[in-house]
Design brief:
heterodimer, A: globular, B: 11 helices, 24% strand, globular
């Protein structure tokens, strides 16, 4: 079961979840900008930001495992970027700075997206005058990501129920055709969705 | 008044498959018609012609008209407002972030003022029994609820014709029963393309049997579906429900 919040089980609502989305987006932007722009020497400020985020984690009862899991997914990219700084003078400090700032920003985004219903985030984007086409793309992406996950899950089950040997070179060939199938199915579905939109009066501009 | 009239309707898909080879039929206002036939008979293709989704390039010589309005480029949006098309997979039809937005999609596309859209949405949600679901995301709904949300999206457009493609597909018996009585409660000309022959028996007085793009038979449902030889010859079977029905 998926919730209105990205990646969080249903039913968990706290004071943080109920705050107006605009306020949360504003605070998140301020926190991210501050942590990016502050010179690394201002240790106290970073401790302050970290403390604020910890407080939000505590009050919103966000699971630490959820945060950890998502940080682990993104961290390799940060390290890749950071590696180049290691060869510069003062590299260790720069690397630490990139790692710290990106982790703080990431935690902020994770907290925002896991405590704000998606449609409220879209509403904020509309208020910020983000072009309608872009909002539609984001909304459709969110709507169909679960359908896509469901579809690939069913294909995996079907594959597993007929596969007798695991981890052979052949399984990579199968994986390639599965990816091709998923791409095809998504394209066909996109066409059907467009048809359904037209049927209810959509006029393509 | 004639709701749907098609005269010698032909259609060939871009891959060369000839889906319709001269379909001629008339459906009167207020009728409920079952469109039956084996897979690939052309049932869905006919429905897609009713509001101009097909052919992709509308030709000036039109062979289908809705309430006397020919389905051509200038009339496209008038026709789409008259015909509500229900697709077999509700996930294709519910594309908005919330149920409310989705039900409001049609009316707002037709340029109605916001207050009117809101009233229509509320009314349609009530009709299909989904009050309180306004702010739910479609991916939280069960298949039955999704199907009802789709129907609410059509009802909100106030169509005079409902063209339903496999409306009971994937529903459990309870969902089927609910959806059936829901369909009965909605006043519109209904055209139901389906393999669910019991649904046809219960909802449609008339049936049209289609095979390989042509109409094979057209008549009262009870007698048409009781013709075992005809049913078997076209990949169907006499529905069980008719085996116990003895008209006096």
């Amino acid at each position: 079961m998926h919730s209105r919040f990205i990646g969080v089980p249903v039913g968990e609502t706290t004071v943080i979840h109920r705050l107006p989305a605009l306020a949360k987006v504003t605070v998140s932007c301020v926190v991210i900008l501050t942590s990016i722009l502050l010179p690394i020497g201002w240790g106290v400020a970073f401790v302050g930001i970290a403390a604020l985020l910890s407080l939000v984690v505590f009050v919103s009862r966000t699971s630490l495992w959820f945060l950890f899991r998502n940080i682990v997914i993104v961290e390799p990219f940060v390290i890749m970027v950071g590696l180049s700084t290691l060869f510069q003078p003062d590299g260790g400090m720069r690397f630490a700075s990139i790692a710290l700032k990106s982790t703080l920003s990431l935690v902020t985004i994770l907290l925002l997206s896991s405590t704000t219903p998606f449609e409220e985030l879209l509403e904020v984007l509309r208020m910020m005058r983000i072009p309608a086409a872009m909002i539609s793309i984001i909304a459709l992406m969110f709507r169909y990501i679960f359908v896509f996950i469901g579809e690939s899950g069913r294909m995996r089950t079907a594959r597993q129920s007929r596969s007798f040997t695991q981890r052979t070179a052949r399984s990579w060939v199968v994986l390639a055709s599965v990816l091709g199938q998923l791409f095809l199915r998504s394209t066909v579905r996109a066409e059907r969705i467009y048809t359904a939109m037209c049927a209810r009066g959509w006029r393509s501009q | 008044m004639t709701a749907v009239e098609c005269t010698d309707l032909h259609f060939r898909y871009p891959n060369g498959e000839e889906a319709l080879r001269g379909v001629t039929m008339r459906i009167e206002e207020g009728e409920s018609v079952g469109l039956i036939g084996p897979n690939g008979a052309g049932k869905s293709t006919i429905l897609l012609h009713m509001n101009g989704i097909l052919p992709e390039r509308l030709s000036p010589t039109v062979s289908i008209s809705i309430f006397g309005i020919p389905v051509d480029a200038p009339n496209l949006f008038r026709v789409r407002r008259l015909v509500g098309l229900l697709f077999p997979d509700p996930d294709d039809q519910l594309f908005c972030a919330t149920v409310y937005e989705d039900v409001a999609f049609g009316p707002s596309q037709f340029g109605l003022p916001e207050a009117e859209v809101k009233a229509l949405v509320e009314d349609s949600m009530k009709k299909v029994g989904l009050q309180g679901y306004e702010h739910r995301s479609p991916h939280h709904l069960s298949t039955g609820e999704k199907q009802r949300a789709c129907l609410a999206g059509l009802v909100a457009c106030q169509p005079k014709i409902l063209a339903l493609d496999e409306p009971t597909h994937g529903l459990d018996p309870r969902g089927k029963r609910q959806f059936k009585s829901l369909l009965q409660s909605i006043e519109a000309t209904k055209i139901i393309a389906t393999h669910d022959l019991e649904l046809v028996v219960e909802l449609c007085a008339r049936s049209i049997l289609l095979d390989e793009g042509v109409i094979v038979a057209d008549g009262p449902t009870a007698s048409l579906l009781s013709d075992e030889d005809l049913m078997n010859a076209h990949g169907l079977e006499k529905p069980h429900i008719l085996k116990h029905l003895h008209p006096h």
